[in-house]
Design brief:
This protein is of the alpha+beta class and 91 residues long. It has a single domain, classed as YaeB-like fold (2-Layer Sandwich). The chain contains 2 helices and 5 strands; from the N terminus they run βααββββ. Strands 1-5-4-3-2 form a 5-stranded mixed sheet. Strand 2 and strand 3 form a beta hairpin. The protein starts with 15 loop residues before the first strand and ends with a strand. The model has no long low-confidence stretch (mean pLDDT 92).
Length: 91
């Protein structure tokens, strides 16, 4: 993502994205593309630790709706692995 790190965000935020097989399947099911996903990451608003150790939740939006993207940094490969992405349900 090259130089897009937000202030106080982890250094791995700028690592190259690696798409998991799970997110590739979800892209079809949830009708979004890799370009859409990269746009969601570029416009991320918040980052918090996930319940699953080592994973993080990225708060973002897509098509004017709130979404979350689950990522897992891979320090050995210096890759940011995208596990899944999903829209949040309206209340």
């Amino acid at each position: 993502m090259g130089g897009s790190r937000k202030p106080d965000w982890p250094v791995w935020w700028d690592w190259e994205l690696e798409l998991s097989s799970h997110v590739l399947k979800r892209m079809v099911d949830r009708r979004f593309s890799e370009v859409d996903l990269r746009g969601m990451m570029a416009s991320a608003m918040n980052l918090r630790e996930d319940e699953e150790p080592g994973r993080w939740v990225v708060a973002t939006s897509h098509e004017s709706r709130p979404w979350e993207v689950i990522v897992e940094p891979d320090p050995e490969a210096k890759l940011l692995v995208v596990i899944t992405a999903y829209p949040l349900e309206s209340p």
